[in-house]
Amino acid sequence: MNFRTRKMVAARDLNSNGTLFGGRCLEWIDEEAFIFTSCQLESEKVVTRSMSEINFLATARQGEIIEVGMEATDFGNTSITISCVVRNMRTKQIITAVDKIVFVKVDEFGKPEPHGKIHPREREFTYRDSLIEA
User: Fold this and answer.
1) pLDDT in tens, 91-114
2) Given this model, what pLDDT does residue 120 score?
3) Which domain holds residue 49?
4) Which of 36, 56, 75, 134 is the most buried (most CB within 10 A)?
C-alpha cells in the first residue's frame, strides 16, 4: 500500500472530544480515493459508487500527522475497487481502514463507461507470459 498523502490535524478538524472528527477523516479518504482513481484510470470523470463498512479504531490529536494509503484491489469493466488505510504517522496506529471503495468511470451524461484498464498485476503477468512464450 502506498501512503502518498499526509494531513496535519488542525483545530478545525477536531470533534467535541478534541480528537480527529470522523467526518473530516472520511472527507480526506474520499478526496484521496478520487485522486488515486483518477491517476489509475487517467480520467477525472469518476464518481464514488460505494464504500464498505468503516470502523474507527484509533484517533489523532491536534498537531499530529496522519497518512492516507490507497491500493487498487480490483478492476471491473467500468469500475475500480480500492482499499484504504488511514494511520497516525507518529504512532503507526491504524485510525481506520476501508476494505472496498468502488469508483465508476462515467461519460458526459453520468452513465458508466468502460475505462479500458486492467489491474497492474495482470499487466505484469501478461508481459511475463509473452517473454516465456518467446
Assistant:
1) 999 999 999 999 999 999 999 999
2) 63
3) 2-133
4) 36
More confident residue, 52 or 1: 52
Please enumerate, as own/partner, the contacts of 15-20 that have beta carbons within 8 Å and a separation of 24 or more: 18/61, 18/62, 19/59, 19/60, 19/61, 20/59, 20/60, 20/61, 20/66, 20/95
Place of cell 489509475: 40
Q: Determine contact, residues 82/4, Cβ cutoff 8 Å.
A: no
Total count of domains within the chain: 1
Report the CATH number at residue 90.
3.10.129.10
**Residue 121 pLDDT > 80:** no
What separation in angstroms does the CA of 51 have from each of 26, 62, 93, 113, 115? 10, 27, 22, 20, 20
pTM for this prediction:
0.84
CA distance readout (Å), 1 to 19, 20, 111, 129:
26, 23, 30, 25
Q: Under 8 Å CB-to-CB from 31, ≥6 apart: which residues?
A: none
